[in-house]
Amino acid sequence: MIDGYGRTIDYVRISVTDRCNLRCVYCMPEEGVCSISHEEILRFGEIERVCQILAENGIQKIKLTGGEPLVRRRLPELAAALKQIPGIKSLTITTNGVLLEEMYDALAEAGVDSVTISLDTLDASVYRQLTRRDEIEAVRRGLRTAIQKGRMQIKINCVPVLGIEEQKLLEVAELAKNHNVHVRFIEMMPIGMGTQFAFVKEDALKHALEEAFGIFTPCGDVAGNGPCHYFAVPGFQGRIGFISAVSHKFCSECNRIRLTSEGFLKTCLQYDNGVELKTILRGGGTDEDLRRAIGQALAEKPKGHSFEKKTEFTDREHRGMSQIGG
């Protein structure tokens, strides 16, 4: 799968639901979003069909996201089916960790290779402030289970929110010191409610982390599906990484597309470019119809985002991250 700018697309992020059991301030309003009806969400068989076609045309890596993917019933069954598709080399999942303890073994047995836990703080009061929920202990149990059982690679995604004490970020980073866990710091994406928050630049955060832990040495020993660049840190078992779409733009290396829970194939996070696949799936379309639609979407994939610009675009994405799939 090659897009109009010669980039090889081998990675798809699939949202299995727009629902979530948290209400993070940069993702959802306190009352939540208007949930899509169950009938409008892609069925597991429809997701499998799309993934089979994508795999036949070069997709090798799948990440399951949400909302919160673990609230989707029978998710391990979907994971197991996707992992068996010829050509799929990696199946990963991103979760907030609230339900991870109870679902960990089922996910591992389904063949999930890596679990990424979204965790911005380990402090209970700050966690409550950011997520509007008291679930930090459930997340801690899920993380502890994942570390102790060690059946899947563990990554932590931390979105630094301006105003949160620097020490709270250091505590998250130390998870990579004390355990074989990779901690990635992600710049706030100006998408949906994220536009209301100033982002913490990678360079400033890296400087603060180096002052606390020592010099960061670039390394390439961590396999990943996306644009994260990793560093080895003295005395750390895991690695520290950065995903910095705003200050360190990586569009020229983009290898991904996204499938929303409603069946819209997105080719760029910032824009609403893409193609509606659900109408083809449910309208009697053939596999060739799906291939043609996917190919057209790839041909029109934008060259890059413009997060660094404040101007408004008529084709800017207006859905929130919980609706897109992160």
UniProtKB/TrEMBL annotation:
Molecular function terms from GO: 4 iron, 4 sulfur cluster binding; cyclic pyranopterin monophosphate synthase activity; GTP 3',8'-cyclase activity; GTP binding; metal ion binding; S-adenosyl-L-methionine binding
Binding residue positions for [4Fe-4S] cluster 2: 251, 254, 268
Binding-site positions, [4Fe-4S] cluster 1: 20, 24, 27
Alphabetically ordered keywords of this record: 4Fe-4S, GTP-binding, Iron, Iron-sulfur, Lyase, Metal-binding, Molybdenum cofactor biosynthesis, Nucleotide-binding, S-adenosyl-L-methionine
GO biological process terms, semicolon-separated: Mo-molybdopterin cofactor biosynthetic process
Binding site for S-adenosyl-L-methionine: 26, 67, 118, 189
Composition-biased stretches (Basic and acidic residues): 301-320
Quaternary structure and partners: Monomer and homodimer.
Name used for this protein in its record: GTP 3',8-cyclase
